[in-house]
Amino acid sequence: MIEKIEEYLAEVKNFVTRDKNEIEQFRIKFNGKKGILNDIFARFKEVPNDQKKEFGQKINTLKQAVAQKLDELKTFSETSAVLEKEDLTRPGFPLELGSRHPINLVRNKIVDIFKSIGFAVADGPEIEDDWHNFTALNLPEYHPARDMQDTFFIEQNPDILLRTHTSSVQIRYMENHKPPIRILAPGRVFRNEAVSARSHCIFHQIEGLYIDENVSFADLKQTIQFFTTELFGKSKIRMRPSYFPFTEPSAEVDVYWGLNSETDYRITKGTGWLEIMGCGMVDPAVLKNVNIDPDQYSGYAFGMGIERIVMLLYQMGDIRMFFENDIRMLDQFKSL
Ligand code: DAH
């Protein structure tokens, strides 16, 4: 008898099906009126007294096993019924993945290039005072160069304004750090300009500043050459004399883009050259304004507009596209 119950136990444990009829047959076989469990219970009285205890335990185990199995089979068949109705091969909901804004993509590229040669990223406020945006940069009140940066003023006397360039971060950083200084300051800037395909009242710049002992113009040129090679794959550059109040001497940098295609002709106006940034050796007057001794230290600075570079790299013809948030434009940068 005991062996027979062990056999039933194994049979119950191994039984699987999703089929409702088979489950019902299984139930009748073990739990039915004339089923195995009732049969065994009926024969319980035939069992010798000394075996009754062990036998009783075995029957209970079998009874529980049957009940548990029926429970399992029921849930199993119900869930499979649900699953059979669902098409599990159907694609999921379209989860739209966003993309980085092209301005951030290019900003990150530029930051990475300068990071690889020891520049750190610095930050400054977009709402500035006159000192950091103009005066400390050697642009005193009534200086004609202020005219080139038509400014949004927030308050006057004292003047509070939206920064017109990231050069203000140079001053903030030098006020709080001793040389050697090697920073890059990306950020948003504001100018009161009519919005058109080529200019906007909001745009982005990246400022660079390097201050140490014995920094020369040759260092500046080498650094910019490294940068243009890394970003554009072009190492031929030229520096044209220019004027910025905060650098002396000052230069504008052109990169030789080439004249290999019609687009090259168009974007370089047939010259092959493209202007990409302003730069120069930091004017000693600026160093004095932030209490850095110009006899001991020298340095260079540079500043470039990010939009212009993005438009070059991705052949975009209209600066307004950056701020329109048109998903059709932004989608194109998904894979980058
Ligand atoms: N701040 C200048 C501008 O917005 C760009 C610039 C030129 C920055 C020369 C510099 C520099 O640091 O050295 O037009």
Q: How does this structure look, described?
A:
There is one protein chain. The strands form 2 sheets. Strands 1-5-6-10-9-8-7 form a 7-stranded mixed beta sheet, with helices on both faces. The protein has helices spanning 2-14, 20-31, 36-42, 49-85, 102-115, 130-133, 167-176, 217-232, 262-267, 284-289, 306-314, 327-330; strands at 120-121, 127-129, 153-155, 160-162, 181-190, 202-212, 237-244, 247-256, 273-282, 298-305. Helix 1 (2-14) packs parallel to helix 4 (49-85) and helix 2 (20-31) packs antiparallel against helix 4. The chain contains 12 helices and 10 strands. The protein binds 3,4-dihydroxyphenylalanine (DAH). 3,4-dihydroxyphenylalanine is lined by residues 165, 167, 207, 244, 247, 278-280, 301-303.
Structural key phrases:
binds 3,4-dihydroxyphenylalanine, seven-stranded mixed β-sheet, 2 domains, alpha+beta, 20% strand, 12 helices, 336 residues, three-stranded antiparallel β-sheet, BirA Bifunctional Protein, domain 2
Task: Describe, in short, the structure shown.
By secondary structure, the protein is α+β, with helices and mostly antiparallel strands.
Task: Spell out the CATH superfamily of the largest domain.
Answer: Bira Bifunctional Protein, Domain 2
The end-to-end distance, rounded to whole angstroms, is 74 Å
Tally the helices: 12
CATH class of the largest domain: Alpha Beta
Extended strand count? 10
| Main sheet makeup | 7 strands, mixed
Which CATH architecture of the largest domain would you pick?
2-Layer Sandwich
Attached small molecules: 3,4-dihydroxyphenylalanine
Percent range for β-strand residues: 15-25%
Order of helices and strands: HHHHHEEHEEHEEHEEHEHEHH
* Share of helix, binned: 40-55%
Rg is: 39 Å
Tally of individual domains: 2
Biggest sheet strand order reads: 1-5-6-10-9-8-7
Please mark out the parts with pLDDT under 50 across 5 or more consecutive residues, or reply none: none
